[in-house]
Design brief:
The complex is a heterodimer.
Chain A (H helix, E strand, L loop, with lengths): L12 H8 L8 H37 L1 E2 L2 H6 L3 E2 L3 H8 L3 H31 L5 H7 L2 H4 L2 H11 L6 H8 L11 H29 L3 H9 L4 H12 L1 H17 L2 H6 L11 H10 L6 H31 L1
Antiparallel strand pairs in A: 1-2
Helix pairs in contact in A: 2-16, 4-16, 5-10, 5-13, 10-13, 11-12, 13-16, 15-16
Chain B lengths: L1 H34 L21 H9 L1 H32 L4 H11 L4 H15 L5 H24 L4 H9 L4 H12 L1 H17 L2 H6 L8 H11 L4 H11 L1 H9 L1 H8 L7
Helix pairs in contact in B: 1-12, 2-12, 3-6, 3-9, 3-11, 4-6, 6-9, 7-8, 9-14, 11-12
Classes of the chains: A mainly alpha, B mainly alpha.
Chain lengths: 324, 276
């Protein structure tokens, strides 16, 4: 692959590349200082941006979660500090257990299927054949569609009475399934839609990972008498491990974020059967006429902890790959 | 003999590939199919697998009712592109070429910013906007939507601009160009591909955004197309051809993107994920 834009993340590289660059002729000190001014001049907009539109809202979010806000005090200020009361209320709520379980089931099941299917497709597309490039591009479509488009399409396809899925099942002699309206099928329904949306990402990233494995290794293994299965498990899979780890961790971060799909298809219902931490947080804060911003923010703080743990794992594993 | 067998194998793969793609894209086909189905046929049993009584009623409804939403989305998308480029391109230049002290910390902060779930940003921005009076305004929505794209944009610009030869920047300096001049007349022109990629994705994400729209603009006079679809689903549950026609129209930017800029799309998907 000779594309010049190496799409590598900046964080872990900035340090190493500075060292790799051959030493320049020593610049006068005033030059160095003025170039620091220029460097931060160009970085100033994004720094201000991060503080104003990331750090500050997050701080407000944190503030919401430790105060006893009512609609009135939300507008006028002066809400009482209540410490961990909101968090305690959230954790002891009867919704907490189902929401946490659903989040884990939703995330893990989605990741397992997205990754497996994505990898199988990547291996399939690795062999060049007529139209392979075009077909691979078409596989990107689900990833590019607005989530609300995909979710409403799936909602109609999974409609109990007139949905095409139940019709197809009927042809196979299966009784209609109440996909979105029964407690036992609502979570699988949103998982199916989410897997469909996530496959392209896994396919593309794993495909580019496969491209990076030198073909000679396969040839050498083939000459040594390894069959296709052995070549996959002994050569491809181990070499793909770093990319796989990155794919899964990024997938984890993305999947924890998922909101649109669930909200549009089931609103987390019926009951709490497809409620995840994300939709629960939204429902608390915006889903009713009496918003409970405090508990909503407390739930979202739980989410941020989960996302950051996944994020840090990702940064670490991406850094390790860069170092290797 | 072996050549023909290999040829046959390749053909067979194409066949399998076409089938797999068809299965994968079935929901998209179904969306188009339903958008052309007359309301009377909507709950027909069995469902019409091809739109035999094709009608453009759904699309006529879109024209009648959804144009303002589409216009808003277009505006918000363009605004988001401009804001994202304005913030991300200089930052990329700085991180790639000017080595600000503390640059790695900034890059790390951007990486973490990318991980924050939208609902958290939604709640936080709601609180901020409420006190500042930015709720239900287009600039407010533009800023919120840009938070999806800015970290991605900076990281993409950084990795792209790192590939610009130092000699080029050195030459500009020798010619007497200052930092700003170098940035505007050397760095930006050679970064065309990165600019296109970041613009495409920031537009697409802003266009597709639902979570910020519903948290920050749900009571606005000007609402984006994602809310248009959402209201449709809530209100007239029966007119699925209109809903799906709106969905088809809302998918146009994605389709254009795929046709016009496929290579940029692949760069965007893998952006920040793997090195090639």
């Amino acid at each position: 692959m000779t594309r010049t834009a190496t799409t590598r993340t900046a964080g872990d590289r900035a340090g190493t590349s500075a060292r790799e660059v051959p030493a320049r002729p020593a610049a006068p000190v005033y030059r160095a200082r003025s170039s620091q001014w220029a460097a931060w001049g160009f970085a100033a907009p994004v720094t201000v941006y991060l503080v104003a539109f990331y750090a500050y809202p997050l701080l407000r979010n944190l503030d919401l979660s430790v105060r006893n806000y009512t609609v009135r005090s939300f507008v006028q200020g002066g809400a009482q500090f209540s410490g961990l009361d909101n968090l305690r209320a959230v954790v002891t709520s009867p919704t907490f257990g189902p929401a946490l379980t659903n989040t884990v089931v939703f995330t893990v099941t989605s990741l397992v299927f997205q990754f497996t299917i994505g990898l199988a497709l990547a291996l399939f597309f690795q062999h060049h054949f007529p139209l392979s490039g075009t077909l691979r591009a078409l596989f990107l479509v689900p990833w590019l569609l607005p989530l609300i488009v995909s979710s409403s399409t799936w909602a109609w396809m999974l409609n109990s009475d007139s949905g095409v899925v139940n019709y197809a099942l009927g042809l196979l002699g299966v009784d209609p399934v109440h996909w979105l309206t029964s407690p036992q099928w609502s979570l699988p329904s949103v998982i199916i839609a989410n897997i469909w949306i996530g496959i392209p990402f896994n396919l593309v990233v794993l495909y580019s990972g496969l491209q990076a494995i030198p073909a000679e290794l396969h040839e050498a293994a083939a000459i040594d008498g390894a069959n296709a299965r052995q070549r996959f498990w002994r050569v491809t899979f181990p070499l793909l491990r770093p990319v796989s780890a990155i794919t899964l961790l990024l997938g984890l971060v993305y999947t924890l974020k998922v909101f649109d799909i669930i909200w549009v298809m089931t609103k987390g219902g019926p009951g709490d059967s497809s409620t995840t931490l994300t939709t629960w947080s939204y429902r608390k804060s915006f889903g009713s006429l009496l918003p409970q911003f405090g508990p909503g923010a407390a739930i979202s703080n739980l989410l941020i902890v989960m996302a950051l743990v996944a994020g840090l794992l990702y940064v670490r594993s991406a850094g390790r790959e860069a170092g290797a | 003999m072996t050549a023909t067998r290999a040829e046959r194998g390749r053909r067979a793969r194409t066949g399998v590939g076409v089938v797999l793609t068809a299965v994968m894209l079935f929901p998209v086909y179904w969306m188009v199919n339903v958008s052309l189905t007359p309301t009377a046929d909507m709950r027909h049993d069995p469902p019409f697998v091809v739109p035999v009584h094709a009608t453009l009623d759904g699309y006529r409804t879109v024209l009648d009712q959804q144009l303002p939403y589409l216009g808003t989305s277009l505006l918000v998308g363009l605004g988001t592109v401009l804001l994202t480029l304005a913030v991300a391109a200089p930052a990329g230049y700085s991180l790639a070429k000017l080595r600000p002290r503390g640059g790695p910390v900034l890059a790390f902060a951007l990486l973490l910013a990318q991980m924050i779930p939208g609902i958290i940003m939604g709640i936080g921005l709601y609180a901020v906007y409420l006190s500042l009076g930015y709720l239900n305004t287009l600039p407010g929505l533009v800023v919120a939507d840009s938070t999806i794209a800015v970290p991605f944009g900076v990281l993409l610009f950084t990795s792209f601009m790192r590939g610009i030869p130092d000699e080029l920047l050195q030459a500009a300096k020798v010619d007497g160009a200052g930092h700003l001049r170098t940035f505007a007349s050397v760095v930006l022109p050679v970064s065309r591909n990165a600019i296109v990629t970041v613009s495409l994705f920031s537009f697409l994400w802003a266009w597709s955004d639902f979570i910020f729209a519903t948290t920050l603009d749900a009571g606005g006079d000007h609402q984006p197309i994602t809310l248009g679809i959402y209201h449709y689903i809530g209100n007239n549950n029966q007119e699925w051809n209109a809903i799906m026609a709106t969905a088809v129209v809302a998918s146009v930017p994605a389709a254009v993107l795929l046709v016009v800029a496929q290579r940029f799309v692949a760069a965007g998907v893998t952006g920040g994920a793997v090195k090639e």
